[in-house]
Amino acid sequence: MFEQLGLIGCGLMGGSFALALKQAGLVKRVVGYSKSPSTTERACQMGVIDVAAPSALLAVSGADIVLMAVPVAASEATFKAIKHMVTPCMLIMDVGSTKGDVVEAAARGLREQVGSFVPAHPIAGKELAGVDNADAELYVGKQVILTPTEVTLSAHTQRATEVWSALGCKVVQMSPESHDAAFAAVSHLPHMLAFTLMNSVIGQSKGASYMGLAGPGFRDFTRIAASDPKVWRDILQANRAELLTQCQHFRDQLALFEAAMLAGDQQTLEALITQASTARAAWRMNQLP
Amino acid sequence: MFEQLGLIGCGLMGGSFALALKQAGLVKRVVGYSKSPSTTERACQMGVIDVAAPSALLAVSGADIVLMAVPVAASEATFKAIKHMVTPCMLIMDVGSTKGDVVEAAARGLREQVGSFVPAHPIAGKELAGVDNADAELYVGKQVILTPTEVTLSAHTQRATEVWSALGCKVVQMSPESHDAAFAAVSHLPHMLAFTLMNSVIGQSKGASYMGLAGPGFRDFTRIAASDPKVWRDILQANRAELLTQCQHFRDQLALFEAAMLAGDQQTLEALITQASTARAAWRMNQLP
Fold first, then answer.
1. Which of B123, B211, B279 sits opposite A283 (nearest CB)?
2. Are A203 and A264 in contact (CB under 8 A)?
3. Is pLDDT at B217 greater than 90 in this prediction?
4. What residues of chain B, 224 to 263, have a C-beta less than 8 Å from chain A?
5. How far apart are alpha carbons A196 and A191 in whole angstroms?
6. Which of A2, A63, A75, B195 is most buried, judging by how many CB atoms fall within 10 Å of its CB?
7. Are the CB atoms for B145 and A210 separated by under 8 Å?
8. Which of B195, B244, B267 has the most A C-beta neighbours within 10 Å, making it the best mutation to test the interface with A?
9. Chain B residue whose CA is closest to A217
């Protein structure tokens, strides 16, 4: 049970965490700060936060748990802004989709208080961002990746595990590097490919009429292309080394398809599709191997 | 109102057409043929067909409407098998995902009877194929593309339009070439990219553990990768010229992302994502521009 959650960023991810914590009876009070005053106001109206703080620093003041739910590129500035109120007993977490850059930002921003920070990535989201879509059930049944480093206080890692577990999440621990390599492959690259497909189609003179014919396969494949541009610019940029590696793997595999089609090699073509189809049919979300 | 539907191929697409036609009261009797006797038997049990025919030729005998719902690669052999029973008043349609190759197969297979054939592509499907998943509602609200050529009897094109409209479909007419170019862009390429992503991930030593972390974005992006290998081998191969062109467009667009990331050019990166995101957010299925 926590006394006070300091929430920095009251959007979908942060707002949902506050609601979930309240619903589970795990926090007495939520003090929230958002860059946009209208967001903070709305969060108050909705009961997502109890008190609006005028700054990130004051949102943290007196908190025993802090969630930083801001764009990853804003991490370092946020850590610096709150540093003077951070205490060793305060558990600080983020929700960013990349971890290596956030870990570095925490080291630079929190300095000797960095042990309080447990990097976290809940694998949850919605197409519709913003506090209006905050949902106490958003995290239920989802995976949360924690990427503590050698400077993280292990008591905090333990508490972070307990909090997310209490919200119904499956908690997985790994290094920031392993996290970023994995998510480059299964999240960041698919987003980049979905963006690329959209740009490829609309860049053609008949692109608009082509899209008018598209069906459910196109709908699902491109759903993630509607994601927030600033959020995804930051993610792609932050994880660019791993992402470029994954992109090269992808190009190599794509070349196998192209070569098989050019050669009219139906056997290879079928083998390539069978491999993909079998793997996808066997895959289940949230099941670690 | 038709007297008798000759159904060749009693799987998901063919079975659903028979059920829809019956439900709409548009046909008195369905005579069905499938390569696999167990499929025909199951189709009889389910009431999808009324009579099982021992051959494609005998399924066509006496029919005034014929639906050929077989893999596209089997088109020419099927046209040849039924040719001797085809009459000028018989309306013949297919449901293939490619049209140029089917039009050529019809010309070679049906010869002087080719005027009876109206090439059709209903934009509908399910992940689960087979007669067990046949559904009278499968085509409701979906688009159907008809690609008649200069040899198609216009009365048949008219009747084909009426039948699909009566089943609740939106009928669109275009040339086989335009069809194949459009579907290379919005269906065949996305399938190939989804297959490629699966192969790219599972081809890495840590691929299985990466996939264990994948979330809803990966799930939707790769859904079509579970498609039937033989069906998609045929589609990719049949439409390979258009598909290779689309693949090159895609590679060019992907290179823009890679270059922006390598250069750390956040402005270009954001502009690329914004373009994709805006286009996807504005897109609505089944709305022609």
1. B211
2. no
3. yes
4. 224-230, 232-233, 236-237, 240, 243-244, 246-247, 249-254, 256-258, 261-262
5. 8
6. B195
7. no
8. B195
9. B224
The one-letter code for the residue type at B146 is L
All CATH 1.10.3660.10 domain ranges of chain B, comma separated, are 178-282
Structure token pair of residue B53? 């025919």
Nearest to B238 by CA among B179, B173, B157: B179
Q: Do A221 and B270 touch (CB under 8 A)?
A: no
Instruction: Mark which residues 116-135 of B lie under 8 Å from A by CB.
Output: 123-125
Tell me: pLDDT of B14 over 90.
yes
Confidence at residue B126, expressed as pLDDT on a 0 to 100 scale = 75
Q: Partners of A36 in the beta sheet?
A: none
- Band (pLDDT 50/70/90 cuts) for residue A286 is confident
Q: Tell which residue, B196, B220, B194, B219, has the closest CA to residue A285.
A: B219
pLDDT at A152: 98
Site from A72, A210, A227, A239 to mutate, B interface, most B CB atoms within 10 angstroms: A210
pLDDT tens digits, A27-65:
999 999 999 999 999 999 999 999 999 999 999 999 999
- List every span in chain B annotated with CATH 3.40.50.720: 2-174
For the domain covering B178-282, report its CATH number: 1.10.3660.10
Q: How many CB atoms lie within 10 A of CB B171?
A: 18
Residue A112 pairs with which residues in a beta bridge? none
Q: How high is the pLDDT of residue A126? A: 76
Q: Given this model, what pLDDT does residue B288 score?
A: 72
Tens of pLDDT, residue by residue over B244-266, are 999 999 999 999 999 999 999 99
Among partner residues B143, B190, B206, which is closest to A218 by beta-carbon distance?
B190
Q: Name chain B contacts of A252, Cβ cutoff 8 Å.
A: 200
For the ranges A48-62, A260-274, B123-137, B190-204, which has the lowest average pLDDT?
B123-137
A156-197: pLDDT as tens digits: 999 999 999 999 999 999 999 999 999 999 999 999 999 999
The verdict on a CB contact (< 8 Å) between A275 and B209 is no
How far off is chain A from B153, nearest CA to CA, in Å? 25
CATH code, A2-174? 3.40.50.720
Contacts of B234 (CB under 8 A, 6+ apart): B71, B72, B73
The shortest C-alpha distance from B218 to chain A (Å) reads: 6
Instruction: Scan for tokens 């010869």, then name that residue.
Output: B111
> How open is the CA angle B212-A141-B204, to the nearest 5 degrees?
10
